[in-house]
C-alpha cells in the first residue's frame, strides 16, 4: 500500500510553465525545499522518505519545449556494504532535462537523448527526473571509507576492532595427513603410558 501524498507536496514536485509557452527565451528560476518521495534508494543506501530535498532550478522556454536545468541536493543515509556501520553524506546532482510541448516533438531524427513531455496542465513533473538522477548517483557498493576492512567472512567479527583477527585454515589437501599425524601421536602417547 503506497503512502498518499499531501496535495501541497504533489504541487511542489510540479513546475507551472504556462507563462513560458509561446515565449522562446523566457526563463525563471525557482528554489524550494520539498519532502523526498519514497523509493529514492537501493538496498543499503538512499534518501529517506520525507527528508529535505533542496531544488535550485531554472526553467527556460525553447522552441521544442522547456529546458529544466539546475541542481538537486539531499542527504544520503544507509549502511556500509563491508562493515554495516551507518553512513551519511550530502549528495548533489546536476539536472538537465528537456520537456517537449507535444508528443510529436519528442520524436527527433536519430537523437537518442531522452525527453519528457509538458503535461496537459502545462506543468513539468519533477519526480521521475529527480528519481532517475538521484538513484543513479548512489554508489553500487557503499562504504564508510575506501579502506574499510569489513567483517570476518567466517565469524562476522568486525575487523576494525582487531586487524590481526584470523582463523587457522588448513589446506584440505593436507587434512588427511593431519588426521594421520594425530592418530600416530595418540598411538605414541598410549605406548608411553603403557610402558
Describe the protein in words.
With 195 residues, this protein is α+β, with helices and mostly antiparallel strands. The protein is 18% helix and 30% strand. The strands form 2 sheets. Strands 2, 3, 4, 5, 6 and 7 form a 6-stranded mixed beta sheet that branches. Strands 1-8 form a two-stranded antiparallel ribbon. A hairpin with a 3-residue loop joins strand 4 and strand 5 (65-79). The protein is rod-shaped and about 105 Å long.
Give a nutshell description of this structure.
The protein is 18% helix and 30% strand. By secondary structure, the chain is an alpha+beta fold.
What is the CA-atom radius of gyration, in angstroms?
A: 29 Å
Give the biggest sheet: 6 strands, mixed
How many strands appear in the DSSP assignment? Answer: 8
Multimeric status of the protein: single chain
Q: SSE layout and pairings?
A:
Elements: H1 7-12, E1 14-16, E2 27-35, E3 45-46, E4 52-61, E5 65-79, E6 86-100, E7 116-117, E8 123-125, H2 127-136, H3 175-194
Parallel strand pairs: 6-7
Antiparallel strand pairs: 1-8, 2-4, 3-5, 4-5, 5-6
Write out key terms for the chains shown.
3 helices, 195 residues, disordered N terminus, alpha+beta, 6-stranded mixed sheet
Amino acid at each position: 500500500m503506497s503512502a498518499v501524498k499531501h496535495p501541497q507536496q504533489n504541487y511542489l514536485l510540479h513546475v507551472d510553465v504556462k507563462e513560458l509557452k509561446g515565449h522562446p527565451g523566457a526563463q525563471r528560476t525557482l528554489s524550494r525545499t520539498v519532502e523526498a518521495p519514497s523509493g529514492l534508494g537501493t538496498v543499503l543506501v538512499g534518501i529517506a522518505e520525507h527528508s529535505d530535498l533542496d531544488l535550485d532550478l531554472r526553467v527556460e522556454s525553447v522552441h521544442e519545449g522547456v529546458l529544466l536545468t539546475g541542481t538537486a541536493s539531499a542527504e544520503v543515509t544507509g549502511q556500509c556494504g563491508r562493515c554495516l556501520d551507518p553512513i551519511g553524506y550530502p549528495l548533489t546532482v546536476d539536472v538537465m532535462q528537456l520537456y517537449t510541448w507535444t508528443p510529436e516533438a519528442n520524436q527527433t531524427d536519430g537523437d537518442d537523448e531522452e525527453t519528457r513531455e509538458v503535461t496537459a496542465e502545462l506543468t513539468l513533473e519533477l519526480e521521475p527526473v529527480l528519481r532517475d538522477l538521484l538513484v543513479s548517483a548512489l554508489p553500487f557498493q557503499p562504504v564508510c571509507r575506501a579502506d574499510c576492512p569489513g567483517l570476518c567472512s567466517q565469524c562476522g567479527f568486525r575487523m576494525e576492532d582487531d586487524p590481526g583477527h584470523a582463523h587457522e585454515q588448513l589446506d584440505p589437501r593436507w587434512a588427511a595427513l593431519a588426521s594421520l599425524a594425530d592418530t600416530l601421536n595418540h598411538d605414541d602417547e598410549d605406548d608411553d603410558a603403557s610402558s
